Amino acid sequence: MKKFFVKPEDREGEEFVVKGENFVHMRKVLRTEVGEQVELLAGDGKVYLCEVSEILEGKARVRILQERENLADPKLNITVYQALPKGDKFEFLLQKLSELGVKKLVPFESEFTIKKPKDKAERYKKLAEEACKQCGRSLPLEVAECISFKAMLKEISKTEKTFFAYEIELDGSLSVKDMLEELKEARDIALIVGSEGGFSQREAESILEAGASAVSLGKRILRCETACVAMTALVSLYLEN
Fold it and tell me: What gap in Å lies between CA 240 and CA 234, rounded to an integer?
């Protein structure tokens, strides 16, 4: 079924008004007609089954037939900090982390980051909305602006539980099983993954000092995008997020 975004303030009684880019997408791209049933996502934790009742100049009115809790919305606050990778890997991760129930994706620069940040806020917003519709969430993944390594350390120091993927075993490094055991009661979680070159020893020590725990993802060295998806999937599925 066709899905469209609206805002809570677009509701007028038992109707929603679809306008702006969403109306253009509804009318010009998907050629939605009066009488069709659609689903609306308003970012309020619900899914609205609606029927298009009227198409006007620049907007459409849709009548609410049914509203229900959106079971696809994330229950936990999971933030992923990803050192900016090369190529289009970040866009791939944006899509996959949307599906895996991540609330926020934060790119950051590190010693081994090769790609330099570019202003792609509008593109990332559209990709997040598309991924949101595909997986059934009512609120898109938030994609933050690229921050410095130092700023990332400051942010994770305030998080309830923070883990970072590190291929070199350190004193106190956790296995995946250990990490999941520590997460049983956590509601606010941060996961950190390096870029193609991983983290330097100095960076790893700084992350530990900021309160994070190192986690080994196995005996093989994973690509940064594989490590990010694997780590997030394990946490989200284990916590039924």
Answer: 10
Taking the C-alpha atoms of residue 119 and residue 220, their distance in angstroms, rounded to an integer, is 34
Residues forming beta bridges with residue 117, ordered by sequence position: none
Sheet of 37-41, strand order: 3-5, 37-41, 46-56, 59-69, 15-19, 11-12
CA atoms of 88 and 224, how far apart (whole Å): 12
Tens digits of residue pLDDT in 149-194: 999 999 999 999 999 999 887 667 898 999 999 998 888 999 999 9
Nearest 5 degrees, angle CA 190-CA 193-CA 195? 150
pLDDT of residue 112: 87
Q: What is the pLDDT of residues 108-128, one digit of tens each?
A: 999 988 777 777 888 998 899
Taking the model in full, what pTM does it have? 0.85
> Residues 55-111: pLDDT tens digits?
988 899 999 999 998 888 888 999 999 999 988 899 999 999 999 999 999 999 999
58: left (phi over 0), alpha (psi -120 to 50) or beta: left
**C-beta separation of 195 from 84 below 8 A:** yes
Task: Write the burial class of residue 37 (CB in 10 Å: 0-12 exposed, 13-18 middle, 19+ buried).
Answer: middle
Domain annotation for the chain: domains and CATH numbers: 3-69 (2.40.240.20), 77-238 (3.40.1280.10)
